Amino acid sequence: MKSNITSAANDRAAYQGNIVLTKHIAANTDSWQTGMNNNILVLGCSGSGKTRNHLKPNLMQCQGSYIVLDTKGILYNEMGAYLALQGYKVDQLDFTTMGGTCGYDPLHQVRIENGKPNQQDIIAIASAICPKEAQQSDPFWGLAAANYLSSYIAYVFEALPEREWTMASVIKLFESGSGKIQHLFNDLAMHNPDSYAASLYNRSKATCGAEKMHSSILGIIAANLLPFGFEGALNSYANPNRIDFSSFGREKRALFVTIDDIDHSLEGLTSLFIEQAFTRLCSSADRDYTEHRLPIPVRFILDDFANLNIPHIDDMLAVIRSREISATIICQTVSQLEARYGMAAANSIIGNCDRHLLLAVQDEATARYFSLRANKPAFALLETPADSWWYFERGKRGVRDNAYRLEEHPEYPFLQAICECKHQISQDGQFKLRFEEEATLANECPTDADPTINTDFFAA
Questions:
Q1: pTM (2 decimals)?
Q2: Cβ proximity of 392 and 355 under 8 Å
Q3: How far is Cα 261 from Cα 308, in angstroms, rounded to an integer?
Q4: β pairing state of 355-358 and 388-393
Q5: How far apart are alpha carbons 400 and 390 in whole angstroms?
Q6: Which fold has domain 12-88+252-459?
Q7: Digit-coded pLDDT (tens) for 55-73
């Protein structure tokens, strides 16, 4: 079977289409025409169809590049072949094992300008690893730990050869002991009086005061570096197939990022990854293109969003529209957002998504939150049957419509045929080779047009 999707690699107009929302409602993705952003908040309890009936159909739209959080670890196998046959370069990064087809090292995302590392990028990495919010009693400890860690990262860039600009080098430097570190920074300052790393280190040391305080700060750094120093992470740093976030705006790419929705020990690494992806794509849009927007739109699909802790994500959502970047935020309830980000930031996140989709409402807080926009009492939302969804769009009253089903997508027969082919040839265990074999099995498959927005539906 053959798909009828034929997106041009670098034609922005080719990626304008529709976001699949409910059975009868889809939304135009041309934000310049609609005046709205393409950020979507999807809320629904477990089993409500967030992944199968919203995430998958919208991946099948093939509207730009995708960075997808795959909490169950199955989307890469179920959707990767489909996207590859649509001309996508498909990769997987598995944060549960640090395996996959590509590697990730936070230091590879530091911009080098005039031969020097970008200081803001260094501080951002250190602040993400040692967030001040983690020390609830006193933010000083997190700030002090981040300052120290910034000096170690800067040292790696200033004193080591380029091949050693990795997190592994940062960890090795930290583990060398305070006495040796002091000597290394003194030596660096002697050879380079303008050293940024030495300046950071001396300022950090001056503010830590007593030796006991210094030891406490080092203990915070050691605890926060744990997820970055296990064997799988070290192997990922050495993987020559490194992620280039800016390439997602130049070519059709899909990256499936597997995270563990039970074990949160690598939460810091995952959150840093997403933060760097947003930052680098925004930087690429601003610096690489005269229109300050990416030629190919990029969508983040952030499943299980409440398990992430992305600094300033509410501010990021407010500024990405003009750069052709958007996000689908998927979680269970409003309360989840508030528990993770606080009430003010949660409200900002919700407000920066111009479209909201409620697949199932099980808690009173979420029902009360949306009851005013639905012009219904909260109990009416709580009593919504499983085959109905609520859709809210900025400037319009919320409406209830039939739930969308993956099987209703015009491309579903093609996806199903691919899955059957994969099942037949999965014994070889080579995913990319299977892409090629599936392509040879393709036959003509008539499909319907894209879903289109029903503008009259809101008048009901």
A1: 0.87
A2: yes
A3: 10
A4: antiparallel
A5: 4
A6: Rossmann fold (3.40.50)
A7: 999 999 999 999 999 887 8
